[in-house]
């Protein structure tokens, strides 16, 4: 195959995956099995051409899939997304977070991404903070404090963008000039819940808003549940802050457990029904955490010392030019705030923060409270780290 | 040795132990070693006769012990105690709780006991509930609710008689017509703290007040600390309800852990300094519990099904006459309250409750909320259980 053909094949596969986000429900293991067995292009061909339902798929379900396939227009979706500042990231892309591969046949077909930072780099050092929508003042306070503390330690806070604990966690990270990612159960152009439109827009500006569903798609109860596996798989660990028994956050926590991620819980009063689910979790495998230091002590165990499992190493001179400029803008021997670094690197504050978290994941810089400073590795002229987005 | 001689020897050993509670500090491992190596009577003889200090004991310390020995008058102590309704229980007595032997050289020389119930029987099915003196409303509420729940499930609540969590636990058990034991760090005739005089008197009436120190002795900071090992050893497990970091309750919990007892903690808000010690414990070996059902699920694991480790079995016709009368007073096929049972058995309500908890430990009766009823074993004419007091 000549280079042009390979590129064309790659483009076809990519358009095929965009098409599949319209046709398959997120996390559908049957679709995942087809992809594994037949590949993207053959799966797309079968859904486009119709014919008899494959073994194990009912006629009604197959007709539903074919009807969705008939309506799908991946070219238009990509164009509209580009217009709205949204990109499509899928397996094989350098920005694809390889830890999602742990989901096996339930791996997302691809992710729609709003925001500047590279998803792969950010996800390397991320923790999920999730919990009850109808949380108490205590839960909101605990989530915001925890998220701010994680941000101050250079960790990315991932949550679901919902009311209650999720929102408090995103806000806590943003307020600490930190990095946060909202994983939605609907199209990333269609913030849900409506009341969080401003918050989700702000996350897209300062962080990332991602989701499996194509532009315009609405959330459904099932989509919230399957979305949780993405939060669990993307992060090093999941912290549950307030959850009633049978809460959706417990689904995320159990998914994290199954995936070999750390599962943590913030305790609360035993008299509070909104802590009962967390306490149930803590009586099982989950670890009790009371603050960001506890979380980092646990999830940082491996990552603080060892390089991430996957991806080639990155010599410093292969950093993206904008990221190299931010690295060069850090003064030697003292910490600097993101404002100063942004001015020095001639970029926006948001862009500087996004790149600082990437450099953090690569081991070049560290965050201490409000300042960023070079690590020993960042001071040295040429060194190695994992692959960039 | 003739029977009369053996009895005389037993009496001498008993008087010797009374003497030793005056001379040795509770839990002194050096004294414990002497007792193990030389026996009670030889240890007493050496302390009475003076002479050179034994190896490893400084001259000053030895002089202090000899001065105490010169003042000790075990005969007078026993007479005064008898007068005050207090008895002396020591290793070898049928009322001695054998689980204290797990303390090795730190085993109490003996225990002074105020109250009617048999200590050994009660301790078989007991749980310690301990915590901060300066507890919050939340801690007091949690302790009282937990203790009441344990009492309702037929468990004996052991604590230290202090302000805060201890007092709330005792009160919770008493309020549920339950069984409770206060382990003091001073003479049992000298309730401490003073503000708990009425509470401790009530415990002595409805339950048991016990301690290692002879009549009239005062508590000291060290005596509080060493007292905690008795609480830990006596019970199946220790629950900590609110404790700041470095709290004395954590000493009890760690002693319980070392002794192979269950260690449990009631979580609280992460924003509360009075829950920080408990959370520290829960991040270690302790198990999170939210109510009495959680506790019983854990500590009852062995005991609910299997007989206790030690002691001969007890045919029903060897029950003490008063206890047999209470057992006979239980109606068949329905639960009855302690008032009704007491009337039927022609005894006081306190006496009936005390004997019901003994029968509970023997497996003859069960408590369900406010009523007591016969177990299958209690209905059958002759059956076996562990040794009575």
Model description:
The structure is a homodimer of 389-residue chains. Chain A is an alpha/beta fold and 389 residues long. Chain A has 3 domains: 3-83, no CATH class; 98-303, Rossmann fold, CATH 3.40.50; 316-379, Orthogonal Bundle (Arc Repressor Mutant, subunit A). Helix content of chain A is 48%, strand content 12%. Chain A has helices spanning 3-23, 29-38, 40-49, 59-71, 74-83, 119-124, 137-152, 165-175, 197-206, 221-234, 248-258, 273-282, 292-303, 321-329, 338-345, 349-361, 376-379; strands spanning 86-89, 111-114, 126-131, 156-159, 180-184, 208-211, 237-241, 262-266, 287-288, 365-368, 371-374. A 9-stranded mixed sheet of chain A has the order 1-2-6-5-4-3-7-8-9, sandwiched between helices. In chain A, helix 12 (273-282) links the parallel strand 8 (262-266) and strand 9. The two termini of chain A are 26 Å apart.
Brief synopsis:
The structure is a homodimer of 389-residue chains. Chain A is an alpha/beta fold and 389 residues long. Chain A has helices spanning 3-23, 29-38, 40-49, 59-71, 74-83, 119-124, 137-152, 165-175, 197-206, 221-234, 248-258, 273-282, 292-303, 321-329, 338-345, 349-361, 376-379, and strands at 86-89, 111-114, 126-131, 156-159, 180-184, 208-211, 237-241, 262-266, 287-288, 365-368, 371-374.
CATH topology of the largest domain in chain A: Rossmann fold
Task: Indicate the radius of gyration of chain A in whole angstroms.
Answer: 21 Å
- Largest interface, counted by CB within 8 Å of the partner chain's CB: A-B, 19 and 19 residues
Report the CATH C-level class of the largest domain in chain A: Alpha Beta
Order of secondary-structure elements of chain A: HHHHHEEHEHEHEHEHEHEHEHHHHEEH
Proportion of β residues of chain A? 5-15%
